[in-house]
Amino acid sequence: MSQIPKTIKIIATLGLLPFFLGAIATFTVSILDFDTKVLFIKISTLYAGLILSFLGGCLFGFEAINGKNPNKMRLWLSIIPTLWSLIALQIPHFSASILAIGFLVVYEFDRKSSLAGTVPAWWLSLRLPLTAIVILNLTIIGFNHAS
To answer: Rounded to two decimals, what is the model's pTM?
Structure first.
């Protein structure tokens, strides 16, 4: 597998901060006041929805530049993360958990796209650890707080 470009790795790693803030805010030992905790959790959940939608857009883009004959099924599947996010963010108390499932599903889309050769060679090397961390943080938010 190819090496993940350094700038992409830095940006992706920094992109985990909102997830960590949301998860930390759910713990009672947090030094944050109640309103700040609620704000961090809401921001983290909304951010998760935006990132999930962004990942679908990435898959759409990778497929769209796949020569003159992009796979129509993968193009249609790439809009699912946006719709999933939209629905998840409308369901109180379960948004984080539904989004966590969405990240797992999108990773499977990533895996299938990797097998088809439509994503960069380093894509799964980036996505696997990020997806695991995101799912862990969303699971913490989902279990510790009604988001």
So the answer is: 0.91
